[in-house]
Amino acid sequence: xxxxxxxPTSTELFKWAVQVWNFYQxxxxxxxxxxVKKARENPDLGLxxxxxxxGFERPWGxxxxxxxxxxxxxxxxxxxxxxLRPLVQRPVTxxxxxxxxxxxxxxxxxxxGRPLQDLPTYSxxxxxxxxTITFECGMGTYFGALCTCDALEWEIxxxxxxxxxxxxxxxxxxMLKFRGRVHARSEEPITRPHxxxxxxxxxxxxxxxxxxxxxxxxxxxxxxxxxxxxxxWHVAPSCMFQPVAxxxxxxxxxxxxxxxxxxxxxxxxxxxxxxxxxxxxxxFYDNSNLKFLRHLLELGDAALLCTGVSVxxxxxxxxxxxxxxxxxxxxxxKHHSGGDGLSRAELNGEFTRGISTKPVSWIRxxxxxxxxxxxxCSGALWLALRASKTLGLSI
Length: 395
Fold this sequence. Notes:
Blueprint: H1 8-39, H2 44-52, E1 67-71, H3 96-111, E2 120-129, E3 133-141, H4 142-161, H5 169-175, H6 177-185, E4 198-199, E5 201-209, E6 214-220, E7 233-235, E8 238-240, H7 254-267, H8 288-299, E9 302-312, E10 317-326, H9 329-337, E11 357-359, H10 360-364, H11 375-391
Parallel strand pairs: 5-10
Antiparallel strand pairs: 1-9, 2-3, 2-4, 5-6, 5-8, 6-7, 6-11, 9-10
Helix pairs in contact: 1-4, 3-4, 5-6
């Protein structure tokens, strides 16, 4: 491609300079990834987060887990939708300073080749924790969450690994400009994200009766396909809480989103590529794999429970935690190899190849380690164990 005003020789030099610059950017971005990965192992991370967010419960009572957990009361375990207050169909308004600063993080993800789609999301405007846990929600966007929340995670990890963060709350917030602005906007940033687009996610722990013991579906996320947290352990299905068929009111359902992601992540059913206007919000309900699951739920051989909420203390976004408890070996038998009109279970490209399960005893010991897992993964696993104990479920 010729550049106007440049001779062929200078054009070649221009192309060469662009290639050198792109190579330099990739090297620098790769170094940033390595720095952040190493920072997750920094023993000061838990201490710093405890200074900034004291008093919140952590999984297994350990400050090493960078996540606050809120256990659902007994009355909500079997009533997930009671967490949602009526949807306010107005867009949230992020702080412009946060959005502008966080745009650099989005640009970084693009340079790294991460798959990014700026889809609508349900965004928390307030979380109330009383006799029940409830969310006030408006409409947000995925990029809004990346800019005003997820960029916080990279700021604190990069600064910590470089040894720049003082171990005192006020001084740390003065040094962490992005997080300091967040705290200045809200005295309760975990439950009231003023100025941020705090998109909600949903993590579902599947505990099922295998051929010899109860097991959990847990796998490392793919470096190439996952927008963030590549290489870290996470439960499946896990997803953003969002409308994908353009029907914000009917898709404003925790169970509905779990069903959709169950098919997408465990059976590689792609999300809709058709225009939302020509689809019904329940376009995937005739899928045989979902029909089989709902049949088990109706028989009482499975239960879909709301165990509570995890808030990632690194990016200050909430994650609704669910437990799909399957108490019949029929589910594993039919999905282990496929048959009877059902598909073989195999995680999609957001995770590393195949499907991985671990015995429940593995998570009772607090595995996977904090530095090797997406923060809400640990919270979801811990809350699943708590709910199972409360209800006396076999695990």
